[in-house]
């Protein structure tokens, strides 16, 4: 039995598809299943049981002998959520409970951290665990993820295998429900389809042209391959970056989305909203040497490959993974 929290969400539901495709169907899905839009992500998936996230911690002791692996992907991922009590409850305290249960019952654990922990990148984007206490996230969401990473590293009792993954800008199918928190590629596709053009944020930083702000965009199918690798690897515990390892510009992203839709790019620029301007990241790029050092060498999709697959095979026909 494999546990997946956040199972109805973007990455969680894609992980179910990946495991199903590899022959795993004894899956226990954990989430708040009250959102009908999210539940569409579970159509045609094979699994054993759904457990409400409020009941999950109490459920574990009764079924721990049958659990083989825990993927804790679920979290409150809204970077505009400023109620720290919500983030402390769902991202920090809940993850501590999952961790402690895995320690108590000898269960291997992979959990989702975030590149939001890096803030403006003052300490770089190196997944050196010595630097984690020095990081300065830009919002309470990033704080909640970094606070757990720090807590995990401080624990004397740890799961026999555990890994925290700092997801960078993940994009791909099954993010239809995410509204404003969906990937830039998702929003670009929809804006182009509705208006025939795309408006990007201007640069407000000397030396960086409009649209030349860069992010590490990583295709969800690559994320799934890493998760699957770690499920079988079960050694070399620690916190790892999970990005493509290659920063690309927003202009590239928009142009490639137009190309995948068979259209000529029409890109213009608007001022970055003042309320986020001073916290806007102009560059993120995951260093991926640490993951490679434990034996993961599968090439990641280029942005060209990922956007082409996503737009042509999922967004245009409205398909799910």
UniProtKB/TrEMBL annotation:
The active site is at 141 (proton acceptor), 178 (proton acceptor). Its cofactor is NADP(+). Binds 1 NADP(+) per subunit. Pathway: Nucleotide-sugar biosynthesis; ADP-L-glycero-beta-D-manno-heptose biosynthesis; ADP-L-glycero-beta-D-manno-heptose from D-glycero-beta-D-manno-heptose 7-phosphate: step 4/4. One of its GO terms (molecular function) is ADP-glyceromanno-heptose 6-epimerase activity. GO terms for biological process: ADP-L-glycero-beta-D-manno-heptose biosynthetic process; carbohydrate metabolic process. It is an enzyme of class 5 (isomerase). Its EC number is 5.1.3.20. Keywords: Carbohydrate metabolism, Isomerase, NADP. It comes from the Bacteria. Residues 2-243 form the NAD-dependent epimerase/dehydratase domain. Substrate binds at residues 169, 180, 187, 201-204, 215, 280. CDD domains: ADP_GME_SDR_e (cd05248). NADP(+) binds at residues 10-11, 31-32, 38, 53, 73-77, 145, 170, 178. Pfam families: Epimerase (PF01370). It catalyses: ADP-D-glycero-beta-D-manno-heptose = ADP-L-glycero-beta-D-manno-heptose. HAMAP family: Heptose_epimerase. PANTHER family: ADP-L-GLYCERO-D-MANNO-HEPTOSE-6-EPIMERASE, NUCLEOSIDE-DIPHOSPHATE-SUGAR EPIMERASE. Homopentamer. Catalyzes the interconversion between ADP-D-glycero-beta-D-manno-heptose and ADP-L-glycero-beta-D-manno-heptose via an epimerization at carbon 6 of the heptose. Contains a large N-terminal NADP-binding domain, and a smaller C-terminal substrate-binding domain. Belongs to the NAD(P)-dependent epimerase/dehydratase family. HldD subfamily. This is ADP-L-glycero-D-manno-heptose-6-epimerase. It comes from Hufsiella ginkgonis.
